[in-house]
Structures are given as C-alpha cells and as structure tokens.
Amino acid sequence: MKPMRRWFLPSTPDVLGLLREQVAITVEGMDALHAWANGTTGAAQRLGECEHRADQSKRDLRAALTVAFTTPLEPEDIFELSRGLDRVLNNAKNAVQEAEVMQSLPDSAIAEMTAELAEGTRHLAEAVAALGRPDKREATETADRAARTQSGLEHSYRRAMSALVLASDLREIAAKRELYRRLARTSDDLRDVAERVWYSVLKES
Fold first, then answer.
1. 1 close to 50: Cβ distance less than 8 angstroms
2. At what angle do helices 108-130 and 136-163 cross, to 10 degrees?
3. Distance of alpha carbon 68 from alpha carbon 118, whole angstroms
4. Label partner for 124 (CA 20 to 30 A): which of 90, 96, 170, 185?
5. Would you call 70 helix, strand, or coil by DSSP?
6. How far apart are CA 117 and CA 166, in angstroms?
7. Rounded CA gap, 204 and 37, in Å?
8. What pLDDT shows up at residue 112?
9. Cα–Cα distances in Å, from 165 out to 77, 83, 89, 158, 204?
10. How many whole angstroms from its chain centre is CA 77?
C-alpha cells in the first residue's frame, strides 16, 4: 500500500491587514498625543498603551512576513512601512516623557504641531488602507495629503522657535526647544512613511 501523500497549502497570512491594524493603533496614539497637548487628563497614559499595542502589532506583522508565501507588496516595503510607523509613535511617546522629565507643560505651539501630526497620520491610514487595491492613485494621493499636512507643522515650528528668542527662562527655553525638535523629527518620520507608500506603489506598477 502506497503511503498517502499530504499536500500543504502555502501560508498566506493577511500581512496588509496586520499593517492596517498597526496604522490604526498609530492613529489612536497620535490622537492621544494631541489630546495631551491640549491638557486632557489620562491622554499620556493612553498614548503609552497605544505604543505597547503597536509594538505587539509590529511583532505580529514581522512574524507573518517570515512565513508568507506571497505578499501583495514587496516584503521589504511592508517591513519599512511598519518600521516607519513605529518610529512615528515612539517619537510621540518620547516627546511626552521628555516633557514630564523636564517638567515642561505643552503650549499652543505644541498643540498646533500635534494637530498636524494627528491629521497626517489619519491620511497615512487612508493610504495604507488603499494599498493593494487596483486603483494605485488612491494610495499615492492620500500619501501626498499626509505629507502636505506637515507643511503646517513646519510653519508652527518656525514660529515657535522664533518666539523662544524673546523668552527669559533659560530652563524653559531649553525644554521647549527639545520638544519642538522632537515633534519636527516625528514629522520627518511621517513624511518618510508617506514617501515609502509612493515607492511601494511605483514598484508594483
């Protein structure tokens, strides 16, 4: 009697679904950052919780990539999109922690910058949701909108840095300068994710 052959289908985990889960948590985290900047009680804790959940989502995605037989995008692009989102949320969490360590309360400039970050992240979520669809323009157009929102952050950043020249409290000047720069770096990371969306779409065209 011949031994029975067993055929196994290749693993096809929903890696884009996992990436969309990570970006959704990132949106929650950036909304919490903006709420913190506006003085909402408990927002900093919510941001920290989002960062932990996003880390687990990132780990789940990487585990799925190691076993996926095929992916809707290049595995490298999915990995880099996930890593970029991780940097955005980590920077947000670090900004809040630095503010607490330096005992520096968020001001109107920080509130403006975090609003732009939150809006940009929502556009990133739309771009990631559109990845893998037949119409490539939806992903790239929403990625463009994510990048454009950061122009407003640049204006807020420059105004805030200029205003520090008139301040007299050296401790507060140093603290605010670091926080403004941290948010500016977060904006750069957000732009990088938007650019990676574009790159991944171009490779699939």
1. no
2. 170
3. 32
4. 96
5. coil
6. 26
7. 39
8. 97
9. 42, 36, 30, 12, 48
10. 15
Helices 75-101 and 15-37: crossing angle, nearest 10°? Answer: 20
In 26-116, beta strands by DSSP E: none
Task: State the Cα angle at 146 between 99 and 63, rounded to 5°.
Answer: 80
Which fold, 15-204? Methane Monooxygenase Hydroxylase; Chain G, domain 1 (1.20.58)
When computed from its CA atoms, the radius of gyration of the chain, rounded to whole angstroms, is 20
Closest of 116, 115, 113, 130 to residue 23, by C-alpha:
130
> Which residues in 72-146 belong to E strands, given as ranges?
none
The full set of domain ranges for the chain reads 15-204
Whole-angstrom CA distances from 53 to 50, 117, 192 are: 5, 19, 22
Residue 143 near residue 162, CB atoms below 8 Å: no
Question: pLDDT at position 166, please?
Answer: 86
The residue assigned the tokens 């980590």 is 90
**Per-residue pLDDT tens listing for the chain (205 residues):** 555 554 454 568 899 999 999 999 999 999 999 999 999 999 999 999 999 999 999 999 999 999 988 888 999 999 999 999 999 999 999 999 999 999 999 999 999 999 999 999 999 999 999 998 888 899 999 999 999 999 999 999 999 999 998 888 888 899 999 999 999 999 999 999 999 999 999 887 7
